[in-house]
Write a structure and sequence with these properties.
- By secondary structure, the protein is α/β, with parallel strands linked by helices.
- Helix content is about 50%, strand content about 15%.
- Strand 4 (about 75-80) and strand 5 (about 85) form a beta hairpin.
- Helix 2 (about 35-50) packs across helix 3 (about 55-65), helix 4 (about 95-105) packs parallel to helix 8 (about 170-185) and helix 7 packs across helix 8.
- The protein is globular, with a radius of gyration of 16 Å.
- The protein starts with 5 loop residues before the first strand and ends with a helix.
Length: about 220
């Protein structure tokens, strides 16, 4: 990757990958790339068109027509959908439910793959997602598989949604997480798996600061 440092963090929905990766990148001075946010933006585009998750033809068409880009303001990643900042619109449960089927279609993944790899070639990055170490950045070092129990992930997601003022129940979120885990792990295109050589990091009993420190320790050991 032209001498750049690429860190891949994979793991299931709600494990805290985005928060941990963003904070670790900030401490190390790396660029944080949230690939899930890119897929969420495309899912939002499909929702706005009223598409069914099973409508592959319609979803691929809308995704090919939609422009998703990443910019950085004040060190924060900004996701742009056709020029619109959609950071505040892509974290709802509705978008979460739509993201998994949308991201499973090969043509959708191919659309974003080039952008993700270009970012990694140009910057020291911490990139998180479902298939970063296995597919997007197979030469990344280190590779980390960050996970937590379903109940822990559901509790964290419920707290986040409450802070955003969104209406949901812990039971609904736990069910959604279990269903998404199954879809992500069993899809034909780039399923969620632990990359060869990845460090397994279970954060069920860690707070955010502890998880961030563990990630930085893993990166430092790899650089040594």
């Amino acid at each position: 990757m032209n001498g750049t440092i690429n860190v891949a963090i994979d793991g299931p929905s709600g494990a805290g990958k985005s928060t941990v990766a963003r904070l670790a990148a900030g401490k190390l001075g790396y660029v944080y790339v949230d690939t899930g946010a890119m897929y969420r933006a495309l899912a939002l585009a499909c929702i706005r068109k009223g598409l069914d998750p099973e409508d592959e033809t319609g979803i691929v068409k809308i995704c090919q027509e939609s422009d998703v880009t990443i910019s950085y303001k004040g060190g924060e990643q900004v996701v742009l959908l056709d020029g619109e900042n959609v950071n505040s619109l892509i974290r709802s449960e509705e978008v979460s439910r739509m993201t998994s089927p949308v991201s499973a279609y090969p043509q959708v993944r191919e659309k974003l793959l080039k952008l993700q790899r270009n970012l990694a070639a140009e910057h020291n990055v911490i990139m998180d997602g479902r298939d970063i170490g296995t597919n997007v950045l197979p030469k990344a070092s280190p590779k980390i598989y960050l996970t937590a129990s379903v109940k822990t992930r559901a509790a964290r997601r419920y707290s986040e949604q409450q802070e955003r003022g969104l209406d949901c129940t812990p039971e609904e979120i736990e069910k959604d997480i279990e269903e998404r885990d199954y879809r992500d792990m069993h899809r034909e295109c780039a399923p969620l798996t632990i990359a060869e050589g990845a460090v397994l990091l279970d954060t069920s009993d860690m707070n955010i600061d502890e998880a961030v420190n563990e990630v930085i320790k893993i990166i430092d050991r790899c650089k040594a």
